[in-house]
Amino acid sequence: MAVHNYDVVVIGTGPAGESAAINAAKHGKRVAVVEKQPVLGGNCTHWGTIPSKALRHQVKQIMQFNTNRMFRDIGEPRWFSFPRVMERSRITIDQQVEMRTKFYARNRIDLFNGVARFKDEHTLLIRDRQEALEELVAQKVIIATGSRPYRPADINFRHPRIYDSDSILSLSHTPRTLIIFGAGVIGCEYASIFSGLGVKVDLINSRDRLLSFLDDEISDALSYHLRKHGVLIRHNEEYERVEGDESGVVVYLKSGKKLRADAFLWANGRTGNTDELGLENIGLEANGRGQLQVDDHYRTAIPHIYAAGDVIGWPSLASAAYDQGLNACDELLERDYRFVNEVPTGIYTIPEISSFGRTERELTEAKVPYEVAQAFFKDTARAQITGDTVGMLKILFHQDTLEIYGIHCFGDQASEIVHIGQAIMQQKGEANTLNYFVNTTFNYPTMAEAYRVAAQNGLNRVF
Length: 463
Description:
By secondary structure, the chain is of the alpha/beta class. 30% of the residues lie in helices and 25% in strands. It has twelve helices and 22 strands. The strands form five sheets. Strands 1, 2, 3, 4, 5, 6 and 17 form a seven-stranded mixed sheet that branches. A hairpin with a 5-residue loop joins strand 18 (345-347) and strand 19 (353-357). It is globular and about 70 Å long. The protein starts with a strand and ends with a helix.
């Protein structure tokens, strides 16, 4: 059995693993990465962020074509099957894999394909698909194994009509009706995607509103537009059992309701990928959802073993995972680092949602005297030109100091627009006020101009 020695071994090649490995390599460390799958990129590239967002983009284009009057001059509305749209999305996945493979090669990072398992605190055994073993000895280890969909034991995921958010990408037909259980970010995104393809969707939510961590007004807007596109939302429901047959799936709810559809998508929670790591050999223990606990240096209970990304839980976003991996590596390199706890929310429904900072509910409960500045996209020239007039930008600010507390955006390009407000909010002292948007010239016409419109709207409320 071959034995290799490294300064740093990173397990996983998703955003957290990639940023950690490249950061260590750029600072002179001998680095190896271990990837269970035959190709690089992790869940983000192959089952999560990239495929679902690429799929969403294709569906959004179809919706625009089918609703734009200009295109009626060249033909009638068109219908596209899910497999056909998914196939177009795979081009992006292939581009991502090619690009990321070059990153590792350019930085002289050794790649091992196989399952990593701890032999002791400094030694990993790597078993490849041919059952061959290699041993990696490392001074530091970063666990960035990501997560997978949580699968309750009482649902038969081997049934050909029952899917989770990974297996749904291999759907070989377009169902006429679909039940989605779980109305979190993933559930809402797929409800948008499938309804955009003309599928009748039942979205089952175990809570009393969608995405309750959002500002209430934004959550309400999401509910409205999902319903507008034919999604039936059922709040405060729990499943009793799920039964599949040759022609569909029946979901029995604890409320006594029975729902039937051509297919069923489970989108309720995720589990950290720690079960194959052999944590028991080094005295580490994951929680009930397979997640590892870390301190504010991203260290586990064993100081030279770090963890970052979805495997440590919140916020379970690719953007945060990348920064977590980078900063975990900075800490072990004894460089300045930060603990990632301020992350913008990006939700790729149709239309998309993004926010940063505190909500109206949070500010009201804290008795902070805030005011609201808002701009509706329907009133901006750029949105009128593109036809993407649905949505708004909302800025929450202090009534007296004009300090900005929160940015909330719903509509086209929301995940891009929010970063302008985020940048200003993170300035110190008087640099973070509503005045910045009034005293700054924005390109016209742009979506970013909504900040100027909103700021003037907000100042009109101040007395």
